[in-house]
Amino acid sequence: MNFKTPMLVATLLATTSLFATNFAAAMSDVTAEAVIENYANIAEAKYADSLTTAKALDAAIDAFLASPSDTTLAAAKGAWLASRVPYQQTEVYRFGNAIVDDWEGKVNAWPLDEGLIDYVDASYGTESDENTLYTANVISSAAIKINGESVDASAITPAFLSETLHEAGGIEANVATGYHAIEFLLWGQDLNGNESGAGNRPATDFSLTECSNGSCERRREYLKAASELMISDLEEMAANWEAGGAARKALEEAGTSGSLSTILTGMGSLSYGELAGERMKLGLLLGDPEEEHDCFSDNTHNSHLYDAVGIQNVYLGTYKRVDGTMISGASLMDLVKSKDAGVASELEADLAATVDAMQIMAKRAEAGEAYDQMIGEGNTEGNAIVQAAIDGLVKQTKSIERAITALDLGSIELEGSDSLDNPNAVFQ
Asked: Are 13 and 355 contacting, i.e. CB atoms less than 8 angstroms apart?
């Protein structure tokens, strides 16, 4: 299934809206406890789907490594793209739930200094004032130095990646694990700047008989280790949302108002500070293709779209699973409606408008102009389309704040961003 097809996105959203409308009609007496339970149920389903698609990616990687070719590499890339659809819809759980936020860096940290992992083009440079491991190239190095001490890198295992290499030296750019490390290994660097084209790593980089660019055996080991590690990390988080899991227990211990605050913090912080600010406005201000979330694959339009969908389906209390089944239950929208119907309707409309703006951006990307081209300096039309999505996110955050007030949850601090709040600081 091609998860990048705009028609599929439209169908998913239309189905979600239909279920939300029908369910809302039957939920005139929704309780906060029921809303919180449905929120946790949907989280459980989303992380289970993320795990399922990660396992499918792992199987595709196995097939690729068994017979490296353009065809099997394309299949592995397709599986990676498919795995991003459910995962990005989980990001709305990140900011309010400490257990998720503390864990998230294992699987979705970005941007990464790819020279830590593998060979890079000469244009990448050879050193960085901030990162001594900028071009460590662990795939071609049996030993590396971390904080001045030699470290054995002869065995590339999941434990080595997670315990030694990831964020080595306390540097966040040393991303060694998760979706984006795997993305880099499958696509390679995107050397096209704001021009057309994604990464174009040759399948022979993983061949034992026609090895290109050296160290193919270790590159194979790294890809497999990263894939296995991501599965175990997702298993951990999926279990946290099952009955009796740590994330569900944390919600229970927070009480009704605390849990509702958690839900709305996740929605508002992802909407404003993270997505509108750090992931979108910053790149638009700088015109920098490196400020692209899925920068090797040129899949950023979909990652941003499904973040927005994730925010929306938490509010609507619905989620369409990767197998096509629909989960629906007591919604935050109905709870807000019981307090202030105007605010509830306004937030519903704002969320839909943002998703519409994201769809326009995604359709433009699918038509041939990638996100890193849209944010390029001088691309007036592309810039405007990205800005429209940012504006939608900012507007819906204001409605989220009104929903917080309607539910009498007191003061909730949402994530901010200099890109939105103090743009001049970005250039200092």
From this structure: yes
Residue 1 has pLDDT above 70, yes or no: no
d(CA 116, CA 166): 10
For 254-264, the pLDDT digits (tens) are 999 999 999 99
Element holding 53 (H helix, E strand) = helix 32-66
Q: Helices 246-269 & 300-316, crossing angle to 10 degrees?
A: 110
| Average pLDDT in the chain | 93
Query: Alpha helices, DSSP H only, in 112-245?
Result: 158-160, 179-187, 216-240
Rounded to 5 degrees, φ, ψ at 319 are: -155, 130
Whole-angstrom Cα distance, residue 427 to residue 119? Answer: 30
Gap between the Cα atoms of 291 and 390, Å rounded: 15
pLDDT digits (tens, 9 = 90+) for 56-74: 999 999 999 999 999 999 9
Q: Write down the pTM of the prediction.
A: 0.92
Q: Where are the alpha helices (DSSP H) in 155-287?
A: 158-160, 179-187, 216-240, 246-269, 282-286
Q: Record the tokens describing residue 413, joined without a space.
A: 């601090």
